[in-house]
Design brief:
The protein has 116 residues and is mostly helical. It has one domain: Arc Repressor Mutant, subunit A (Orthogonal Bundle). It is built from six helices and no strands. Helix 5 crosses helix 6. The longest helix is centred in the last third of the chain and has 20 residues, at 93-112. The chain is elongated. The protein starts with 5 loop residues before the first helix and ends with a helix. InterPro entries: RNA_pol_sigma_r3/r4-like, WH-like_DNA-bd_sf.
């Protein structure tokens, strides 16, 4: 079982709406491409596909408030800046930042099984 953190969830969130975004995700622990390849045990090989399935489930099941869900969608799904989201939602940029942070936090909690 993977313990999800904010950094991983923020990296995976765009794949909820754009499946092609997964092609740009690389393993930060992988060796350089010019290094010789070692044999890999397929049982522990990669977790990308599991992460992709989990992030979609987390997005659907996390108890986000409507304004948090909208802010997260606009920020990670449509790549809008916080100033534009603030204009759309009729709030300050700081409020948008808080909504996005809370939304991502709720998704992390949901994926880790600690959601209230």
């Amino acid at each position: 079982m993977t313990n999800y953190d904010r950094r991983l969830v923020e990296r995976l969130l765009p794949t909820v709406w754009d499946p092609y975004a997964a092609y740009g995700i690389t393993d930060s622990t992988a060796p350089d491409p010019d290094m010789p390849r070692a044999r890999v045990d397929p049982a522990i090989r990669g977790t990308l596909y599991a992460h992709l399935a989990d992030i979609k489930t987390g997005w659907q099941r996390a108890p986000l408030r409507p304004e948090e869900r909208q802010a997260v969608l606009l920020y990670y799904g449509l790549d809008q800046d916080q100033r534009h989201i603030a204009h759309v939602q009729g709030v300050t940029r700081q409020t948008v930042g808080e909504r996005v942070d809370r939304g991502v936090g709720r998704i992390v909690d949901c994926l880790n099984g600690t959601a209230a």
